[in-house]
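DM from R.C. (forwarded with permission)

"hey, sorry to bug you on a friday — could you get me a structure for this? deadline for the figure draft is monday and I only need the backbone to look sensible"
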Amino acid sequence: MSEYRFMPERNPRAMPVQNFFQEYHDETAPGAGYAKGAALSRICAFGPAIAATIGLLYAMISWFSDAGITLIEGTLIALICFNFFWIAFSVTTVLLGVWSLTRQGARPQERSAGAMPKPMNVALLMPIYNEVPWYVLGNARSMLEELRARGGAHRYAMFILSDTRDDEIAREEQEAVRAVQAVLSPGLELYYRRREENTDRKVGNIADWVCNWGGGYEAMLVLDADSLMTGRAIVRLTDALARDPGAGLIQSFPQLIGAQSVFGRMQQFASGVYGAALAEGVARLAGHEGNYWGHNAIIRTAAFAACAGLPYLKRRGGRSQLIMSHDFVEAGLLRRAGWGVRFLPRIRGSYEETPQTLIDHIQRDRRWCQGNLQHLSLLNARGFRSMSRFHMFHGAIGYLLSPMWFALLVMWALIGTSEEASVLRYFSPSNPLMPTWPELSEGRHVLIIVIMYAMLLAPKLLGIAALPLTGARFSEFGGSARFALSFLSEVVLSVLYAPILMVQQVVAVFRTATGMQQGWSPQAREGGHYSFLTVLKVHMLETVSGAALLTGMALGVVSPWLLPIAISLALAVPLSMLSGVSFSRTGRWMGTREDFRAPPITFAARHYRAELKTMLEGRGAHKIAAE
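My reply, with the result:
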């Protein structure tokens, strides 16, 4: 079958490969300028976080400075203060978001004064790789039908861009496309292309479309295989891009839906409840120098083609390496060229799904770790704006903090509860080769740990306080009592799973640094089912670490304030198996607004998926009977 059988006539657009070591400015970019108040927002976010960290640094130096600060003490202080800054920065970012919501209420950010937006020709791009065909095409049809029902001046076409390697799945994809094309409402356009070779993975998949058909579309809205967007959200993103000639990319804020497991519900509740204030703060902080998350974002095709063609990274030994987490880099290249990159978190109706089990999350996180650590080599690229560099650095720090937390945990455990009750004891204090272990009393243990836990809890409480400012009501979460139970459940589960995720990110960083992490396998959308031995193998390091901490506490040489971490690590295997326990579709525990009042598009998508699945299974059964 021809590679382009299901596609319209080609309309090429040049997409030159960029050079990270030469500055580039797109002469066609009208200039995005700076968002009003962005500089003040950055001062409000970074300033208090830096000041609080300096205050903690001063206090800790005063604790250890009586006899001079040793190398070990200095390392401990540096680890605590570095980790504390990023916690404080998350708090100040949420505070910035709350402040923004109190000033602007829940008014949509994308609206601006001026005439009606110019009609745009928009391509909805859905790259897929060995996905379930009826699921993908059911979602695609629901979005197209919503756009038809909504109407408007913009024109939309859906492209299913397949990189599937399995020939049987590819055959089912083509059958699904034919089936949907046969029943689509008049005027709706659905196209399909399968590449013979999946060169450069998703980066190459999108680039292939831009180079061959991008000339026919002013904008492209990039989706993931599990993305679902309402017609209203798609039109609002399109209007926002049409009204802002300086914008090269506008990112929506995808909400998590469809979680039917303990771990999935935990993440979905956290995103749906705490995420609004954080997202608002991030939008304020970024201004026109925002970021791109790879999906549910609309992009000006000409801008993307002109300045976001990705080169390979040069590694040691002259080897070339594909940029894995391409989205951050593409946003930086757009901004470098003079185009704005915006984030509009108040556009509702943008959805995606989340891994259903802890192990599925870990597998995805390892891929993301590999991609984000690549960005460290691009921090010296020519022409990148400071915020673009910060986005890439912050993404890498999100993974590098875990080894730092782990090192801090080890040092805390070794320090023990006192000089006499410590895992390490120096019997020759006068020996200059054996420095004195830092003096950290139990009271100071308690103070530091309480401060850390309070700072970690603060963004959650602030997110809840900001909910009414977003137009949400607690009744939409099942009432105040049910909401309180869900909140407490999420906090307990996040405390239990956080140390496990920390250790797994340490493993991911180690695998990436040593070259063990290779490849970029697709996500298991519905979650895997893992045997006890598989789970034990994955979580062996956590189990051993937790047992060691508990043993130290039983012997009185490890601070009991580390008990929550020790319990989590020791119970990593049962907690991992608990993560995949499913609820019925009507379950309300840790439910979000979308669970209690499902958006109409989710019903439509469920209907179209079931209809298409039945149709394909019927054809398969008929084919088997004929044979």
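R.C.: lifesaver. Residues 425-435 have pLDDT under 50 and may be disordered.
me: no worries. The longest strand covers residues 121-128.
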